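Customer escalation, tier 2.

The customer says the design service returned an amino acid string that "doesn't look like it belongs to this structure." They asked us to rerun it and document both sides in this ticket. The original structure tokens are below, unchanged.
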């Protein structure tokens, strides 16, 4: 009798451990000892970054993870990628309107979330970078962010026995260079896939939405879908939503990159996945909460001539409708993603 109940307890413990493993990990990307298996999320479009010549491996991924969390990437070893990109905020920076870099320098822009990057055609708020592997060069060398030079970074890594070993395991030789740094980082950030929010489970018929959330989804589809296209909640385009230029920051968006007049105040349509966690909002973090964002669209006080006319249909949204849309937006929060320990600081887990 005694041994029977012992067995029951033992199998219960085993079951809980097993359950825990499943709950905390995104089922669409599996790391075994030898391999990284990425399953294409159902309903998602074709990826842009196909990991060509950079197939993720367990050792490549873990190297990228160490690099992402290591302040060694900055000149005075004070700032890591993760300092600005916080896991619990879907890798945005909660509560900071503008990024904070080396020597407490305040940057010009709001830190965006990092998620579903392999589906993005371009990066940064105005699309200045168009390859995932090239993206980290910008923060590493930006004097306001990490202010480091690549040759110096490589020397520091070459002097570090732990990194010599990690590079050797990931790339099977002892040469450490910037190409490998960038590839490892792309393996790590490229696998930050968010597709297990309540919205996703609703679409997969695994969960339900409340009537308020469902009303919000319908309003979203008629008012926002044009730009924040499902299932990524961005159509990868650049748009002007009638925000007035901040005269201190003077960030006029994509025009600075292309020189095309009609690109004035155009910014990348951000994904709204995990938007509940990524406040404040917009390229300069000017709105503190979702109510302020909705009020901007609903008020219709658009300040630039070339604003995208599709936002006119949002003008006049009433209070109930705003509440419904916000309730829907919160179903995009994906705890499986933000709690996934495989994206945590490797020195902690
Ligand atoms: C000082 C804060 C800071 C640091 C450090 C930092 N970032 Fe960022 N990151 C930002 C900001 C701000 C942006 C948006 C920049 C822009 O639009 O000009 C950004 C953009 C990005 C994007 C593009 C997201 C998108 O979808 O457009 C990725 C990917 C990214 N960072 C990865 C990294 C990696 C990898 C590192 C470390 C090598 C890093 N970041 C270091 C602040 C930071
Ligand atoms: C014409 C295209 C367009 C439409 C329609 C549109 N948006 Fe946006 N949205 C954008 C762009 C572009 C930005 C970024 C602007 C910036 O930073 O300057 C943005 C930003 C946001 C943000 C801030 C996200 C962040 O991470 O900072 C939220 C929230 C948002 N939109 C919600 C909505 C909702 C809800 C609707 C419908 C009621 C909607 N949008 C309709 C283009 C659009």
């Amino acid at each position: 009798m005694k041994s029977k109940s012992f067995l029951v307890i033992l199998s219960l413990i085993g079951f809980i451990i097993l359950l825990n493993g499943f709950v905390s990990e995104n089922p669409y990307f599996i790391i075994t000892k030898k391999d990284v298996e990425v399953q294409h999320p159902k309903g998602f479009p074709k990826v842009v970054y196909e990991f060509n010549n950079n197939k993720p491996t367990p050792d490549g991924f873990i190297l990228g993870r160490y690099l992402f969390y290591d302040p060694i990437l900055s000149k005075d070893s004070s700032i890591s990628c993760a300092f600005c990109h916080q896991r619990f905020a879907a890798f945005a920076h909660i509560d900071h309107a503008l990024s904070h870099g080396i020597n407490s320098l305040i940057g010009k822009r709001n830190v965006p979330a990092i998620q579903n990057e392999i589906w993005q055609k371009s990066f940064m708020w105005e699309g200045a970078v168009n390859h995932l592997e090239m993206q980290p060069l910008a923060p590493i060398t930006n004097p306001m962010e990490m202010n480091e030079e690549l040759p110096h970074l490589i020397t520091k890594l070459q002097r570090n026995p732990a990194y010599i070993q990690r590079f050797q395991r990931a790339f099977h030789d002892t040469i450490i260079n910037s190409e490998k740094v960038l590839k490892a980082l792309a393996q790590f950030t490229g696998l930050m896939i968010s597709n297990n929010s309540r919205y996703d489970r609703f679409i997969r018929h695994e969960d339900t939405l409340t009537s308020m959330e469902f009303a919000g989804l319908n309003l979203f589809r008629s008012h926002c879908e044009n730009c924040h296209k499902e299932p990524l909640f961005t159509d990868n385009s650049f748009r002007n939503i009638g925000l007035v230029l901040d005269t201190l920051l003077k960030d006029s968006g994509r025009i600075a990159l292309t020189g095309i007049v009609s690109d004035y105040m155009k910014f990348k349509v951000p994904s709204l996945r995990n938007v509940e966690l990524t406040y404040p909002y917009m390229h300069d973090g000017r709105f503190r909460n979702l109510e302020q964002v909705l009020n901007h669209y609903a008020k219709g006080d658009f300040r630039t001539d070339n604003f995208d006319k599709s936002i006119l249909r949002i003008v006049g949204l009433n209070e109930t409708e705003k509440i419904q849309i916000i309730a829907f937006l919160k179903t995009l929060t994906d705890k499986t993603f933000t709690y996934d320990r495989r994206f945590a600081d490797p020195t902690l887990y």
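Tier 2 assessment: The sequence is consistent with the input. Residues 223-224, 226-228, 239, 241, 243, 267, 269-270, 272, 275, 278, 281-283, 290, 293, 297, 308, 310-311, 314, 325 surround heme C (ligand 2) (CB under 6 Å). Confidence is low (pLDDT under 50) at residues 17-23. Sent an explanation to the customer and offered a walkthrough call.
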